[in-house]
Structures are given as C-alpha cells and as structure tokens.
Amino acid sequence: MFMSREAVIVDAVRSPVGKRNGGLSSVHPADLSAYVLRALIERTGLDPALVEDVIWGCVSQVGEQSFDIARTAALSAGWPIHVPGTTIDRQCGSSQQAVSFAAASVVAGHYDIVVAGGVESMSRIPIGSSTAAGNSPLGELYSQRFGSEFPNQGLGAEQIADDWGLSRTQLDEFALSSHAKAAAAIDAGRFESQIASIPVNGEKIAVDEGVRRGGTLESLAKLKPAFTPNGKITAANSSQISDGSAALLIMGSDTAAELGFTPIAAIDTAVVIGSPPMPMLTGPIPATEKLLARRGLTIRDIGTYEVNEAFASVALAWLKEVGANEERLNPNGGAIALGHPLGGSGARLMTTMVHHMRENDIEFGLQTMCEGGGQANATLLRLL
C-alpha cells in the first residue's frame, strides 16, 4: 500500500540558539519546545490534531527535562490530548535520530504525520547532570572491555587533531571561519525564514546569541588549551554550551499531496553507525561512507554538508578523510559559532540545511554528527 510513499519535510523551524545563561536561560525547556511546536503549526496551518506522534531528542533527561519532555511539550503547546510524544537519546545526534525514526515510521505506514525535533537547555540542566550524583553509567562488563575511565570528548578531539595532523592554527582558522559565516548569514537575513522568536519577559528573542565578530588568530592564540597543558583544543575552537530547540513536520508524500502541502525535501537515506568509544568522535567518517555507498553517490554529488562542529578537529578530519569540498561545509556557520544545544542540535542543523537547500536550489544535502559513546548518524535530504 505504501511502496511508493516517501517521507517528506513540509516545514522546519527552530528557536534562536541562546548562549549559556543568556536570553533563553529563563525559559523552561518544555516551554521552549512548545514555542517551536506552536510555530510549526502557525507556519503551516496544519491542524495539530492530525499529528500522530512527537519524537523528541534530549540528552540530559533529568529534572526539568525528564518525564518524557516530548509529551510535556505537546501538551504545553496546547495540542490535543490524544497527541502523544516520546523522548529519545542518541547523545548529540538525538534529534537527528528522531527525524530518522519519524521518516522510517512514515515510510512503513505507521504514521501519516509526525513531528520530529529536540531540545536542550544547557543553562538550566548542565551537561553531565544525569551522572552528577557520581553514578557511573559504565558497568563492570563495559569496564572489562574498555576500561573504567569515562570517555572524554575533549581528549578525543585532541587525539583526532594529532591523528589527522591538524595544527592549532588550522583549528583556530576554522573557528574564525565558522563565526564569519554565521555573522554573514545573520546580516543577510538568511536565518529569518527558519527562526521562531521566543517570548521572554515581554520581549522576543529572534537572533542566535553565540556569534562573535572581530576575532583574530592572535586573540585566539592567547587562549589556554582546555583539556591538556600542551593541547590544541580550546574554548574557541570547540562548540558552545547553548539553549535551543528545533522541529520538523514530516509526513508521507501521499498525505502531503492530499492536504495540499508542497514539501521542501524528501528524507532520502538515513544510516547510523558505531565507532570506537575513544576517541569517540570519528563516527561521521564511516557514517558518511556508509550513506554514500548505500545511495550509490559520491561526495561530489552532494551540494551542501552539515557536519556538527563539536570541535574543529572533528569537522576538519571529516573534510580531509572524505575528500569533500570545503566551500560546501557548514555554509552558514556551525556549532562553534551558533552553539550546540545537544538534544536539539540535530534538528537545528537539519532545519538550517533544508532552508539552505531550498534557497539555493541544491539537490542533495548531507548531515552527520559525532555522538557520545562512539556513534554517528548520517542523513541525506533530496530537494523536491
């Protein structure tokens, strides 16, 4: 019955990304999610009663982000009580995985209409909160195989820089480029079509807060290494701690036609892969290779790529290993400039990418992210 059905993105919207203890820090993460869900409905005119599930990524599912925040968000948005929600954790790729689960379920015919996205308020729920009480998630059997020391992403980023021969100058140059591209996107109004303003204390926040202008290699060189005394990874060439949320309206191509929607893109192919727990962050390389092989494409066929800038070394190693065109990488800046609200980042990247594809008539866009535990998602979008 659904053999010819595709999963398509009808619209995608995000909050601005707030910096730590910035403008969005006073907003409860369930409310931040709800504002984005409301915006999706306002933009499309869809009756929320038709949404069959909300699949939401969130990493630190404790405190205000516990109790299945997907369900709380849908209720907070004022959606009908029969609309359910489920919250998933694939670390930094949680909301990219939410999109993959949504697409697969639509193609299988389990859903006709679903919303996928995610949230993280790192100001209110700091990274590591789920293990703050000293309860290690690593049991005896894991420790026997990999050691009892908890994998450190910063040390992993340092190892990647060494393994791929990346210098401190190269990492800092990449960071400056990320900020410059994001600033140019803001100045040109390229984010306006994708951002939903968030009301805070009678005002509306509508601009990403983390972008810094006027940086130089000299100023960045003064920063001390963040993880090892003689290391290359600093706060400047790492992703920012942030608050944010994003959501995508996904439905079957047949359902979109029946309802009169014109989709932006199809979720063409999606893969996920495991990589070594340390250095943890190399997964985007085999994930990209797996996706291209499955689809029968080469990296030259892809018009734009969003590779999450967890650290500059991650994106630069990916670039070198897959032979990609640097001009097509994160054309509107990445997490170094815009921020990395963990569970919301996958949906934020995809929202940014799908709007960029539409505005520049790009046929294929590829997104990939490194993830805690040594994993990566890769997703291919095809413009419609």
TrEMBL record:
SUPFAM superfamilies, A to Z:
Thiolase-like
Please tell me whether the keyword Transferase is annotated for this protein: yes
Enumerate the active-site residues. 92, 340, 370
Q: Which Pfam families match?
A: Thiolase_C (PF02803), Thiolase_N (PF00108)
Q: Which Gene3D superfamilies match?
A: 3.40.47.10
Sorted alphabetically, which keywords does the UniProt record give? Acyltransferase, Plasmid, Transferase
Query: Any idea which GO molecular function terms this record carries?
Result: acetyl-CoA C-acyltransferase activity
List, for all copies, the residue spans of the domain called Thiolase C-terminal: 262-381
EC no. given is 2.3.1.16
Positions of the Thiolase N-terminal domain: 8-252
Family label: Belongs to the thiolase-like superfamily. Thiolase family.
Q: Per its UniProt record, what NCBIfam families does this chain match?
A: AcCoA-C-Actrans (TIGR01930)
The protein in question is named: Acetyl-CoA C-acyltransferase
Instruction: State the organism named in the record.
Output: Rhodococcus opacus
Lineage, highest ranks first:
Bacteria, Bacillati, Actinomycetota, Actinomycetes, Mycobacteriales
